[in-house]
Amino acid sequence: MTTKPAFNIRDDDDILAVYGEPLASRLFLGTALYPSPEIMRLAIKSASPALLTVSLRRETSRDAKAGQRFWDLVKATGVRLLPNTAGCHTPREAIATAQMGRELFDTDWVKLEVIANDDTLQPDVFGLAEAAGVLSREGFKVFPYCTEDLSVAERLLSAGCEVLMPWASPIGTARGLINPYALRSLRAHFPETPLIVDAGIGAPSHAAQAMELGFDGVLLNTAVAKANDPVSMAAAFSRAIEAGRLGYRAGLMPPRDMASPSTPLAGLAFRDTNHAS
Questions:
Q1: Is residue 129 left, alpha or beta, with left meaning phi > 0 and alpha meaning psi from -120 to 50?
Q2: Phi–psi pair at 80, nearest 5 degrees
Q3: Backbone dihedral angles phi then psi of residue 84, each to the nearest 5 degrees
Q4: Which of 4, 45, 75, 111 is labelled catalytic?
Q5: What is the per-residue pLDDT across 124-144, written as a single tens digit (0 to 9) for each?
Q6: 235 with 2: CB under 8 angstroms?
Q7: 111 in catalytic set
Q8: Helix (H, G, I), strand (E, B) or coil at 166
Q9: Cα–Cα distance between 110 and 53 in angstroms, integer?
Q10: Which DSSP symbol is given to 227?
Q11: Distance between CA atoms of residues 266 and 174, nearest Å
Q12: Which distant-in-sequence residues (6+ apart) come within 8 Å of 166 by Cβ?
């Protein structure tokens, strides 16, 4: 198992900023499902993420000592925390959980989840917009976990959100970008809004694909935590996100319907025009 730091390409004119604050990378990492606290710590070190998401329901449901140990561990990483409202099914639940998180973790940043369906974990887009409006008025900096629907995005932005977190596919499925057309449309409609792809990312190639579409970052958890080697997988995702972003900025070659030779024909010694077809 390696603990070698992830390769980083730093470009001072391409720093992601959300709610007016610059972030150190474009990778957001979850803190659930790791085989042990030590492996989680090493994976975080390997990935060098900008933010760590923390499940409020999970941490507050444990005994006080366990919760304190977890808090001490994540605090020691030095990475900014993004409490989330995972498991909430109503706006009221999500608002109360966010308020608890502000007191517990001393931050007004919150990843807002309001779940509509337990099988797909699809967001309740109506409840999400309602909760986002209330929390924004209370001074929260809301990161809403949403679908790629354009009208939902409009409502969330109108509710006060300055960043959106559309899913790639249902949480934990590892299916990658199941609707790249819709994600591409979302990116095109909101060119100035930070967009972080969240949920369903299963492989570094999925993360790179999201970044190549022009998204601003990727949030993931299960694909790292449940890997055979979470520390190496964390590094792989970090590098994939850097590569995808660099490729997007460099300008990807558009796909073609016909072949086009990379070696010019001019200057060849001879060309047999009578070759068999």
A1: alpha
A2: -65, 140
A3: -125, 160
A4: 111
A5: 999 999 999 999 999 999 999
A6: yes
A7: yes
A8: strand
A9: 9
A10: S
A11: 47
A12: 146, 147, 148, 153, 183, 186, 195, 197, 198
